[in-house]
Amino acid sequence: MLAQAGQALTLSWCFDIPVDSARTLRAVPLHVREIMKYKRPSDRAMLSSCDAIGPDDGVDPRTFFRKPSRQRTNRKALQLCAQIAQALSLVLNESRDELLRSLMVETVEPAPDSTRVLVSVSLPAGTHHVSRSDVLQRLHGACGRLRTEAAAAIHRKRVPELAFCVLASGEVR
Fold this sequence. Notes:
With 173 residues, the chain is an alpha+beta fold. The protein has a domain at 75-167: K homology (KH) domain (GMP Synthetase, Chain A, domain 3, 2-Layer Sandwich), CATH 3.30.300.20. It contains six helices and seven strands. The longest helix is centred in the middle third of the chain and has 19 residues, at 75-93.
C-alpha cells in the first residue's frame, strides 16, 4: 500500500516470499511518514459558507488564539547606555575645549550590541559656523579620554567602543 497525499502515517506490509528452499523473506511493517501541509481554504469555499469574508477567516486557530509574545528589550544594554550618557555629559561639560563643552549628549544606543555604542550629540543653536566634520574630528581626538571616563562610570570587564553622530540643534535622529 502506498502513501497518499494528506495521510500522516501509512502502514505497509511485506509478506513472506520464498526466495529458494532455504531462505524466505519475513513480513515486516514499513512505516512511511509524510508531513501534512496546511492548506488555506480558498475564498470561494469560504464564501459558500458565510455572507462575507472577515480578516480572521481562514486563519489557523492555533496561531490566532496564541497570546502575543512581548518583545524582550535588552534591559542591561539600555542601562549601560544610560550610564555612558550620564558619564559623557559630565566629561564634555568639564572639557577644556570650548566646542566640546557646548555639545549636548542626546542619545546613546547600542550599535549593533553593547560592545559598540552610538553617541548622538547635538550642537547648540548659535553654532551654525562650525562644521560637523570639525566636531567629529575633535570628538575622535578626545575619544580615549571619553572612553576612560565611561569605563570609570560603568562596571564592565570590557568598555564598549564609542561611535559618534553629530546632530544640528532640533534635529531628531
